[in-house]
Amino acid sequence: MRPFTLAAAIALLATPALAQFPPPGVYACVSENGANLGELTLFVAGDYSFKNVDGNSASGQVASAGTDVNPLSGPLKDMQLTGVFATDDTGKTRFRFTGSDGLDVSCE
Q1: Which residues in the chain come in under a pLDDT of 70?
Q2: Residue 12 resides in a domain
Q3: Is residue 97 part of a domain?
Q4: What is the pTM of this model?
Q5: Closest among 18, 36, 42, 33 to 95, alpha carbons compared
Q6: pLDDT of res. 16
């Protein structure tokens, strides 16, 4: 009986982290002063594409733990951005990234 209880407790603790991966979608990104930076397209399994305002597109991968988003490769990593995301009660997801140089980026 105890091994089952322990296994159930571990499964319940792991479930919220697994359920927190950012939802796939297309998100418009702006700087803290409202300047358009481009479009973030998030696919399943952490793949993403970022198209800047000039129309140039590049892809990469992100890792997610809870609500933290950490670029592993691609343009978000090149910009040294790390971030968080939140989904509200209506299902709208917003990302907030911060760069090592102080750049703040919001995508929704």
Answers
A1: 1-20
A2: no
A3: yes
A4: 0.79
A5: 42
A6: 44
Quote the number of domains for the chain.
1
9 domain residue, yes or no: no
CA dist 54 and 45 (Å) reads 27
Task: Answer yes or no: are the C-beta atoms of 90 and 15 closer than 8 Å.
Answer: no
Residue 41: burial class (beta carbons within 10 Å; 0-12, 13-18, 19+): middle
Is the alpha carbon torsion for 19, 21, 26, 30 positive or negative?
positive
67, 86 Cβ separation under 8 angstroms: yes
| CATH number of the domain that residue 40 is part of | 2.40.128
pLDDT at res. 13: 46
The whole domain housing 91 covers: 21-107
* The 3-state secondary structure of 7-44, one letter per residue: HHHHHHHHHHHHCCCCCCEEEEEEECCCCEEEEEEECH
